[in-house]
Amino acid sequence: MPQLPGLLKGLGVTARTAMRTLFPKRGMRTLIPAPQQGSVTVQYPHEKEAPPDRARGVIALHEENCTACMLCSRSCPDWCIYIEGHKVKAPPRRAGGAVRSVNVVDRFDIDYALCMYCGICVEVCPFDALFWSPEYEYSEPHIADLLHDRIRLSEWMETVPEFLEYEPGSEQKVRKVPDFGTDDFAPKRQLGADDAGPARKLEADGARELASGAGS
Amino acid sequence: MTGALGLAYWAETSIKLGVALIVIPTAALMLGYLFLLKMMAFMQSRLGPQDVGPYGTLQLIADAVKFLQKEDIHPAAADRRVFRAAPVVVLASSFLLFVVLPTGPDAVVENLDTGIFYAMAVSSLSVLGVLMAGWASANKYALLGGLRAAGQLIAYELPLILAVMGVVIQADSLNLQEIVRAQAEGEIFGFGLIGNPFILTQFIGFLIFMISAQAELTQTPFDMPVAETELVGGFHVEYTGFRFLLFFMAEVATAFAFSALATVMFLGGWWIPGFDFDAPVLNVLGPVVMLVKILVVAFIIFWIRFTYPRLREDQLQKFAWKVLIPLSLANIVVTGIFKVVL
């Protein structure tokens, strides 16, 4: 009967959990059952759960940054991102420069019925066009309505929280860093001479104030 | 012909029938709500149902209404008649168990002379229903579940009955009322105030009975016949709606009946210390005392259910044949020796 102490211990664990849930109060009020306070669950429709930091609720699209480069679409394991775009001629940036050609997004859909929330698209986007938002209340009666188009995805942008500093020592994987200048959050890829070109181009495109300190 | 209450046979029968029809669903609902929903939730640091009725008390009734609305689906290859009969057989087995349970000097549906024998025989009827369900569903998971149930219930029927034997030897009777009387009029070394509940003298028997009952009820850790993670529900995988509800009701009602049997045989039944055995007031107080004791025993059954993980099939059989049966045989021998010597 070597298992007996363990079996009794198990019974004790469940009994203790039940008692803690049912009678969470201490002192004189111990005998008042208050499972509402004792349980660890959230009564969801009645009270909303606060999502944890960097929760993966829904993916938001910052449309101005998107160049329809298709990297996210091609890296998606579920193939749930649909992108169409076309090139338009844009006036040269400097007087006397060449006429530029710019990609315009016509369609950017994410099918949340397929999405598995891996976040590869957010990680892979080189232009900071995709962000995680912690919102999770977007269920639909019809499965087709889970296909969010670029307008809906852009609306999620309002819910994207401010960038939260990584915990010290955590490996920095996602290049979603507002300031590349500080050493702590420098991207793993060394922004050397070779990379200065694209970095400058980003700056020149005015996509975002990304690379202000990157080359230095 | 008049019964114990002095009424005509038909009147008494209809009263008993009405009481039984109220008692059994109420028992199932009570156990289901108290233990299956609430206690399980608390043991997992949850709240359980909250929205239907105060503290979710009407949740099971809402569930029953939901089940009644569901479509009655038969698998195409199913043996339709057997498929339909199976849940009724299982439920009938647990209904028949309630017939002999005494709750007072006269408050018993039928005071059979071979009450405990009848209860054991009737409780094993449910195996038939489970096998019928498993076979008629034309589903390999259901068939595996049915066969597992058959193997398990046969293996655990033996220690169950052998554990009861010790009580029968000590009480000198197969009649459940007489077993209660033997406990009420017994004495512990000359101290007769609380009688002699057989849990004191038959503690091994009580343990074996509870473990075997756990297996007989297919409650975890002996729930291989319905193992959700392996057999996706076992023998009732193909059942929907009302037929599933019958299986569910039978499971909980049988748990109630087995708790009542354990109460009658080991915990002194409905008798209250200090009262005459035949005091008429016990017809009212007895059921209350019974209910409290039943809830305590059922609490243990469900406590074990919510604590332990499932055993493996070979561990289950090994435990029955190599541990429980030899132990219960030894218990009978020791009880017999004491009976003869003392």
Strand content of chain A: 5-15%
Q: What is the end-to-end distance of chain A?
A: 70 Å
Point out poorly predicted stretches of chain A: 177-216
Number of domains of chain B: 1
Secondary structure tally: strands of chain A = 5
Helix content of chain A: 10-25%
In helices, the fraction of residues of chain B equals: 55-70%
Cα(first) to Cα(last) distance of chain B is 41 Å
What is the multimeric organization of the chains shown?
heterodimer
CATH class of the largest domain in chain A: Alpha Beta
Radius of gyration of chain A: 25 Å
Largest interface: A-B, 18 and 14 residues
Biggest sheet of chain A, strands in spatial order?
Answer: 2-3-5
Strand content of chain B: under 5%
What's the mean pLDDT score of chain A?
77
- What's the CATH architecture name of the largest domain in chain A? 2-Layer Sandwich
Describe the model.
The complex is a heterodimer of chains A (216) and B (342). In chain A, the strands form 2 sheets. In chain A, strands 2-3-5 form a 3-stranded antiparallel beta sheet. The radius of gyration of chain A is 25 Å and the shape is elongated. The model of chain A is unreliable at 177-216 (pLDDT under 50). The termini of chain A are far apart. Chain A has helices at 4-22, 35-38, 71-75, 120-124, 150-155, 193-205, and strands spanning 58-61, 81-90, 100-111, 130-133, 147-148. Chain A has 216 residues and is of the alpha+beta class. Chain A folds into 2 domains: 52-161, Alpha-Beta Plaits (2-Layer Sandwich), CATH 3.30.70; 168-216, no CATH class. In chain A, 14% of the residues are buried. Chain A has 6 helices and 5 strands; from the N terminus they run H-H-E-H-E-E-H-E-E-H-H. With 342 residues, chain B is an all-alpha fold. Chain B contains 13 helices and no strands. In chain B, helix 1 (9-43) crosses helix 11 (241-266) and helix 3 (80-97) packs antiparallel against helix 4. Chain B has one domain. Chain B has helices spanning 9-43, 59-69, 80-97, 115-123, 125-136, 140-171, 176-185, 198-201, 203-216, 228-231, 241-266, 282-307, 313-341. At the A-B interface, helix 1 and helix 2 of A face helix 1 and helix 12 of B.
